[in-house]
Predict the structure.
Amino acid sequence: MKHSHKTVYQIYPKSFCDSNGDGWGDLQGVIRKLDYLQMLGIEYIWFNAMFVSPQRDNGYDVADYRMIDPRYGTMDDFEQLCQEAKKRNIDIMLDMVFNHTSTEHEWFQKAIHGDETYKNYYIFRKGNADGSAPTNWQSKFGGPAWEYVESLDEYYLHLYDVTQADLNWENPAVRQEMADIVNYWRSKGVHGFRFDVVNLISKGSFEDDPDHFDGRQFYTDGPHVHEYLKELNERSFGLDEASMTVGEMSSTTIENCVRYSGANAHELSSVFTFHHLKVDYKNKQKWSLMNFDFLELKQLLNQWQIGMQEANAWNALFWCNHDQPRAVSRFGDDKKYPKQSAKMLATCLHCMRGTPYVYQGEEIGMTNAYFTDIQQYQDVESINFFNILKSLGKSEQEIYHILQERSRDNARTPMQWNDQPNAGFTDGTPWISLTSNYPIINVNNALADPDSIFYHYQKLIQMRKTYDVIAEGNYVPLFEEHLQVFAYKRTLKNEELYVINNFYGSPCLIQLPEACADMKILISNYSDTKAVDEMTLRPYESFVLYQSK
Ligand code: GLC
């Protein structure tokens, strides 16, 4: 099957299924659930980073790239997982966190003990004459991006947590290490790789950010990033025709993504981009709330669809991941229209051009966590910003409200399997609290209800395999100015597909194009949708029309 027909399922291993009662998900737990994933119809599982790690940033602080963290299992468990997945035609995608390592990684430990070879694996710089940090850059998790090491009288760069030291990709030895790591996992039969924040690996000049922002203009899509990715491709995954790769691109541009994922670019197969997930950031600030700007959302997704299509480049399609709040709580209505809005969001995304990603629990409509106590939060970014917002004088009540909307922990609560204690996730004490609605929103209930969100996802995933127009068709936006409707058309040879979505809980009127009159409804979130030329869409109503001429 071509990659364009496939759907990826994302597993956050810590929160998926615990087989041994230690409160952490693990690989044996995943093996138990492979039949469930096969039933959903996905072809790939992307696992969030699960290598040896002190877990300051839940595995994105890697201390050994070649070992599974023992809390998830052994290498035997991993190999068993690969075999069991393969029996079900499911491939594995691993998360390569190559912009930085944990400061507990032996390379970094050697570096801070003065070993010059390993110091050159990282980015160490002298401070300014007055002793201040080399630049005014800020860490993405809050606070300065440089940490002083007294014994060396130098600073090291960390764009993320202070325990995540940035690697020096200008050093050819680092680049070779990275290729070797990919090849190590390839030798275990892994074909899929996700590269964490990979467009930040090439730092440009070390200058103060004149706007006193975080300095991203100096290292995002940096000067040698394309060269480094071509080299990595050539030395590792590019040797495998079946490989599927995706790069996580922070604050990038279409122009760069065309180069990262263009069909003949020999860099990556696809890219994750985030512009559409910032449309509810007030003044571009993640920790400042506003209602999402629907027209901007539409405009951005349309721009990316068309820009990537024109250049024959490839997008990953997603609303949710382990860093984002739950889509049904964010863009839908998880109280009044949970089913309709979750299905609408799924239809809108899955019929676009690109590779859809389903984040664990999304397929049953899992919602934000709505935690009410800072003790419930585990995420380093959320805890940092709790303190930062407090020091800026915001009331606790206000901060809780912000975290309930924005914290990454909204996505990280345990998978809701059933209505038993801890939602069937663990027999022990879960590492993070559950979302309290699990007695209602859970896999058991979803499987028992023929009209559930789960079966809607199953159908969409199947449609991508069946209809070439979904996988490969041309994308044309419709109703671009409409204040409530997100619609588009896909075309391929004699096939035509119309996707119509009411993004709001209030009805609205649309005039369907004439071509729709005789088309067949492939999927809808209302059982009695009738596509007529002048039609009133009900709350969150969403459907797909198809014809083959
Ligand atoms: C990516 C990961 C995120 C992590 C960060 C630093 O954005 O998705 O979870 O915290 O990179 O590695």
